[in-house]
Amino acid sequence: MSLLAQLKKDALVARKNAAAVRATLLSTLIAEAEMVGKNAGNRESTDDEVQATLRKFLKNNQEALAVIKDEARRAVLADEAAILAEYLPPMATEADVKTFIAETVAGLADRSPKSMGAVMGALKTRFGTGFDAKQANAWVREALAG
To answer: Is the whole-model pTM more than 0.85?
Structure first.
C-alpha cells in the first residue's frame, strides 16, 4: 500500500472516530501531497513526494512551535508533530552516517572539496531521504579536509 493510500485510510478512520486534529491534519496533508503529483503531470504522487510533503509539514510545525506562546495551540502542534512523525521512516543515526562518510572518503582517490558531490551522492543512494543532509554536509567537509 502506498503512503498516500495509507494516509487516506487513516484519515477516514480518524473522521469516523471523531479525532478532529488527526482528521484535519491528514486531510490537509493528503490534499497537499496529491497536488504535487497533479502538478507534475496529472499523476499520483510517489511515496518520496509524499514523504517530502510530510517533512515540509513537520518543518513548518516546528517553526510554529518555536514562536507560538499559547499553551493550548502548542499542545495541538505537539500532537500534530507526533502524528506526522508516525508516517516518516526512521532517520539514520549520526554514527551510521559518519561511518559511511568515513568509508566513502577512504575509498576516494581525490580527497579534495571537489569530491563533495560524490560523497553526498553516495549518502543519498545509501540512506535516501533518511538523514539530515545539512548536518551530513558539514561532516563531509570535515572528513574531506582531514
So the answer is: no
The single residue listed with the C-alpha cell 469516523 is: 16
Per-residue pLDDT of the chain (146 residues; tens, 9 = 90+): 899 999 999 999 999 999 999 999 999 999 999 999 889 888 888 888 999 999 999 999 999 999 999 999 999 999 999 999 999 888 888 999 999 999 998 888 888 888 888 899 999 998 887 888 889 999 999 888 87
Maximum alpha-carbon separation in the chain: 59
Placement of cell 496529472 in the chain: 42
d(CA 140, CA 131): 13
